[in-house]
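User: For my dataset I need records formatted as: sequence, then structure tokens, nothing else. Please produce one.
Assistant:
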Amino acid sequence: MKPAYRVALVAFPGIRAFDVSVITEVWGTDRTDRGAPAFDLRRVATDSASVPMRGGLALAPDRTLTWLSRADLILVPGLDDHVTPAPAPVLDALRRAHARGTTLAALCGGAFTLAQAGLLDGRRAITHWGLIDLLRTHHPRVNVVPDALFIEDDNIWTAAGTAAGIDLCLHLVRRSHGAEAAATIARSMVTAPFRTGTQAQFIEHPTPRADRDADTLAAVRDHALRHLHEPLTVAALAARAGMSPRSFARHFTAETGVTPLRWLLDQRIAAAQKLLERTDLPMPEVARRAGFGSEVTMRQHFASRLATSPRAYRTAFSTRSATGSGAGGSNPIAR
């Protein structure tokens, strides 16, 4: 039996209860009866004393910092006060963990903790849009990215505010256990299973006058998802929406936070991941159904976006057990 994936939640006074809840919901809820992987989430602190949080809440640690040496993933919640120094033992432990090659991830203002440890010096990082200037002021050696949901640099992940923490946690599940595992957890949480980290933090809300355009764009996206295996161009999608390509691209980006081409690529990669996990279809057929046209093109995008190959991805994350090829029908993924 495969051992549980070990996850550490680093706790010290001042961490945000919301981020603790997100981490606990994603990594601390047993969903193995639904096919999700087994996780071993531990609340790690300097000692066994209760950790106070805002609102009269408290967190009971179940491990000390020494447990971080066993963790596969270390998560740092955001903070209520972003300029108060974190405990020195915590900063030292995070430095040692990074030196060991352990994956570190900070939610929202947790980037300030990593920055205090010097782990973000010279590296790209993101935080809540309202804290970007504060992070730049207090930690000028950090390369603060102004507009993203989450990013990675040297095995250190940072995320923007609130809901982006959910996105990052699900992405980390997807990265370590595959798209199907992340989708299972997302369904349980009734949240979107996949938002790309490069999506903008700000998404313009359509005005009442633009509601019809928003409905039209939703219909176009639904059409695209049902026809990913076909050649889809921005011009063709714009024509379906009754807009010029330029107007369509502007409205699409305002509503989704990404360009139409970027959105299409994200959906095709996600479709290919599901096919690789769920079926034993040959690579050229996976590429065709996901809309890449050729195995070479699919392989190039997997290398660029996922730092792996389709074959390696299938080997790592296949969930099929003599389920057949999934052939039949034009829809690449049963939705």
